[in-house]
């Protein structure tokens, strides 16, 4: 899995503050950009967060992971590697640790992947179009994509995918996304946590092992909001 932040809105705090000042009185012009960010977040006035966006180059994730990722539809755009036009012979793939750490399962998995490669190559060599040969490719096949997401949707998607209940690969993806945002905009990263951090309770029937940690963290950081 490789992730790179290739572009983002410069000085998003200033942009959010400018948006907020449009709706408020002139007496508040002197207040800081960070003040407005905290005010907007705390008040739930998150529509202004849509003015800032982040573009990520995401490589070597499984198709299974990308299928989950593209379910986010509002405030996000995707451009993905096409299996219709690209040659997938010798494709690389993701192996879950549950399989990798089980010798018998690992052997079965490797055999299946090798057979899938051979079958794909044979179909292509028989003159079958790549768009039809791809039907034998497994969900584990690696893919690459460019994702642009606005900050409001980033808060929402991180709330869902950073949760320990989320599937392990997409959870790892969003923790890396959060790390990249933190390096550029640490204040914005303070809002990128699982839902329980913001809601102050867990909506899952069976909470994950990290629930108490995030609830205490939210309490400790209460002054930020």
Tell me what the structure shows:
This protein has 225 residues and is an alpha+beta fold. The protein folds into two domains: 2-80 and 142-194, Gyrase A, domain 2, CATH 3.30.1360; 97-136. It is built from eleven helices and four strands, in the order E-H-H-E-H-E-H-H-H-E-H-H-H-H-H. It has a four-stranded antiparallel beta sheet with strand order 1-2-4-3. Helix 1 crosses helix 2 (33-43). The longest helix is centred in the middle third of the chain and has 23 residues, at 103-125. It starts with a strand and ends in a 5-residue tail after the last helix. The model has no long low-confidence stretch (mean pLDDT 89).
């Amino acid at each position: 899995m490789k992730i790179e932040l290739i572009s983002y809105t410069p000085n998003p705090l200033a942009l959010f503050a400018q948006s907020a000042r449009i709706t408020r009185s002139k007496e508040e012009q002197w207040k800081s950009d960070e003040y407005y960010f905290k005010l907007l977040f705390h008040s739930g006035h998150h529509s202004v967060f849509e003015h800032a966006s982040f573009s990520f180059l995401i490589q070597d994730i499984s198709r299974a992971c990308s299928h989950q990722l593209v379910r986010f539809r509002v405030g996000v755009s995707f451009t993905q590697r096409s299996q219709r036009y690209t040659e997938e012979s010798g494709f690389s793939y993701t192996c879950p640790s549950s399989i990798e750490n089980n010798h018998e399962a690992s052997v079965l998995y490797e055999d299946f992947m090798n057979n899938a490669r051979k079958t794909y190559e044979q179909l292509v060599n028989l003159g079958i179009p790549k768009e039809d040969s791809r039907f034998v490719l497994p969900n584990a096949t690696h893919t690459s994509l460019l994702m642009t997401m606005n900050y409001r949707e980033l808060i929402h998607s991180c709330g869902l995918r950073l949760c320990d209940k989320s599937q392990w690969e997409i959870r790892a993806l969003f923790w890396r996304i959060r790390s990249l945002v933190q390096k550029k905009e640490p204040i914005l990263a303070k809002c990128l946590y699982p839902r329980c951090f913001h809601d102050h309770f867990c909506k899952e029937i069976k909470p994950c092992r990290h629930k108490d940690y995030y609830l205490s963290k939210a309490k400790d950081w209460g002054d930020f909001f």
